[in-house]
Write a structure and sequence with these properties.
This protein is of the alpha+beta class and 246 residues long. The protein has eight helices and 17 strands. Strand 2 and strand 3 form a beta hairpin. The radius of gyration is 20 Å and the shape is elongated. The relative contact order is 0.15.
């Protein structure tokens, strides 16, 4: 392993090589390396930062990796009851099932939306962008519209806006608004946290149940013009802007 690390002065880190092959994100690739599931030229490697060249034979669980140069960026308006993973033991419908005609490349969701949650979801094979968009330090903002089981009182509105202490974190929304002042059970909330089920947990903490949740914006991406269950490719300008934001 040290011999490989010493001789690869150029090239790219091993986890980046795997990510560029479209297998998974750089973070997940690093975990695979640490678990001893990656070989370089037949040698098991456990350090994600070991540098490799495109001429090296890299394999994950025996499967050969080949970096891709063409990246694909797909924006999906996710329907309800579709899972945001690429594999599911329960055989439920996956977001990747909805974009089969979009590309032959293996793409992955950037972050997750709950099984019951609808709305904007980005899928790509650009591991570097995925890593940056998912990293907390970049504070990528997401906006949701939530339909609650009852009107949100001014008291609870202000409590949420001031910050809510959950069991694993304290979360303060960037914005919170009533969508319709005549129906205070419908609210929009903007956050930059990527924690699991965070919006639902925020409202549950103050005694509300989210009956419907729709992500209407991710970074600067919206679902405008995309019907539920449909998708489109990002424009070059959108990709460029996303990379600047991250």
């Amino acid at each position: 392993m040290n011999k490989i690390a010493e001789t690869k002065l150029d090239g790219m880190p091993l986890n980046k090589f795997i990510s560029h092959s479209g297998y998974c994100s750089r973070r997940d690739a690093a975990e695979l390396v640490k678990q001893g599931r990656v070989t370089v030229n037949g040698i098991k490697i456990t350090e994600p930062g070991v540098r490799v060249e495109t001429t090296d034979r890299v394999a994950v669980n025996g499967r050969a990796m080949r970096p891709k140069t063409e990246h694909v960026y797909i924006l999906l308006n996710k329907p309800v009851n579709v899972i945001t993973t690429t594999n599911d033991p329960e055989k439920r419908k996956k977001v990747t099932d909805l974009i089969k005609k979009a590309t032959k490349e293996k793409v992955y969701p950037v972050g997750r939306l709950d099984y019951e949650t609808t709305g904007v979801l980005l899928l790509t094979n650009d591991g570097d962008l995925t890593q940056r968009l998912a990293h907390p330090k970049y504070e990528v903002r997401k906006t949701y519209v939530a339909i609650l089981n009852k009107p949100l009182t001014e008291e609870k509105f202000n409590k949420i806006l001031g910050g809510v202490r959950l069991e694993d974190c304290t979360i303060t929304p960037d914005k919170l608004n009533y969508v319709d002042r005549n129906n205070k059970a419908i609210v929009s909330i903007q956050i930059h946290s990527g924690r699991n089920r965070i919006v639902r947990r925020i409202f549950e903490h103050v005694g509300y149940v989210v009956q419907k949740l729709d992500r209407v914006k991710f970074a600067d991406l919206t679902k405008d013009g995309i019907k539920v269950g449909q998708w489109r490719y990002l424009t070059a300008a959108e990709v460029k802007k996303l990379k600047k934001q991250s």
